[in-house]
Amino acid sequence: MVRKNSIVSASELKGLLEGDQDVLRELVRTVVQQTLEAEMDAALGATKGERTDGRLGYRSGYYGRTLITRVGKLELRVPQDRQGQFSTQVFERYQRSEKALVSALAEMYIQGVSTRKVKQITEELCGHAFSASSISAIVKRLDEQLAQFASRTLEEAYPYLILDARYEKVRDSGAIRSRAVMIAIGIDWEGRRQVLAVELANRESASSWKDFILGLKQRGLKGVEMAVSDDHAGLKKALREALPEAVWQRCYVHFLRNALDHLPRKAGDDCLRELRWIYDRRDLAEARKDMAAWLLRWQEKYPKLCSWVEDNIEETLSFYRLPFGHHKHLKSTNMLERLNEEIKRRTLVVRIFPNEESCLRLIRALAVETHENWIEANRYLDMSLLTEMKKKALMELVA
């Protein structure tokens, strides 16, 4: 029987904590080593020394391999099989974003725009200093992989599309400028999330968003029934022009933040809390009923807010056209916001990118890892709910 992925035991962990060695590095090394052993067990259909009719091959020793991580160098023993067919994904998966982060930091150092602190970070990160040739080799291999991901054909239909952008600092011609990082997430008919595109633009203009969406369509994007985004004017215009068939859902979280601009600074929380509850109703009729009651309750005290909400709230209620089980996932851009938070956590290490290429490289590498994790995970949405809703609507129309 194949052994399940093992973890560090309590006694091993106690030994690590009591030893003189670097605890975190040794803990990571132990976990990665166990992952390699588990991968070999799965490939052979048997654990080391196990007798079984289902065995697919035999072990043949180990070879040494160094894995460079942010906790230092990990010296690992990679198992081999007699046929030489075993291949692990541990190194490629783990090092893709690590290489992007390392290359960005190292480029800063090599180009002479870094500080002594950056040099210290890169050496602590990887255990050695960098030369221009070593960085060039890392960048070339990584860019080839990321270019394939960025230009891949989108063969499936994506009924749901989520769009957002964040900004990163990039050095350009001696000046530090902000660049928009535009990201698209799609949900296919199997209910799986996928990162469709990551691109850089000078700013979030209507033309840059339109080019971004048209680029997706040139790669095969089709079947979009609902697009979710914030209220950015350029993005809204681009969606109308490039995806006129898609219903637009304005992110209700951004909407509630915008509502603060129409409230006095010392206003209480009850007003917006009650407005927030409207988005938890089961259907549009119930939501509109509560909306009318909310307006009656707060009209006299906050007339400016109530007028603004009445004019704009319908844009945030499009998700009520979807099955109830999809509401919490499609009424906001939160799934993309979580990806942006992960990107922010990593780009803060760099702070100011030496050029646009290094910025796009790191963010795309992080996006690829997220994309692969999503593909391997359980389905995000039950799309049969949407299929059944459309069938029911068609039958009612025919009747």
Task: Explain this structure.
This protein is α/β, with parallel strands linked by helices and 399 residues long. Among the domains are: 10-88, no CATH class; 94-149, no CATH class; 255-332. The chain is built from 15 helices and 8 strands. It has helices at residues 10-18, 23-44, 90-110, 116-126, 132-151, 206-218, 233-242, 252-259, 270-277, 284-298, 303-312, 327-330, 334-350, 356-376, 384-398, and strands at 59-69, 72-81, 160-172, 175-187, 193-201, 226-229, 247-250, 352-353. Strands 3, 4, 5, 6, 7 and 8 form a 6-stranded mixed sheet that branches. It has a two-stranded antiparallel ribbon with strand order 1-2. α7 (233-242) links the parallel β6 (226-229) and β7 (247-250). α3 (90-110) runs antiparallel to α14 (356-376) and α5 packs across α14 (356-376). The longest helix is centred in the N-terminal third of the chain and has 22 residues, at 23-44. The N and C termini lie far apart (57 Å). It holds the Pfam family Transposase_mut. Keywords: DNA recombination, DNA-binding, Transposable element, Transposition. GO terms for molecular function: DNA binding; transposase activity. InterPro entries: Transposase_mutator (IPR001207).
User: Could you tell me the mean pLDDT?
Assistant: 83
Helical region count? 15
Largest sheet: 6 strands, mixed
Distance between the termini: 57 Å
The tally of beta strands, per DSSP, is: 8
Which spans have pLDDT < 50 for at least 5 consecutive residues? Answer: 1-10, 13-21, 109-118
Q: Strand-residue fraction?
A: 15-25%
Determine the structural class based on helices, strands and strand pairing. Answer: alpha/beta
N-to-C order of helices and strands: HHEEHHHEEEHEHEHHHHHHEHH
- Helix content bin: 40-55%
What does the overall shape look like? globular
The rounded Rg comes to: 26 Å
Pfam families: Transposase_mut (PF00872)
InterPro entries: Transposase_mutator
Function: Required for the transposition of the insertion element.
Organism: Desulfomicrobium norvegicum (strain DSM 1741 / NCIMB 8310)
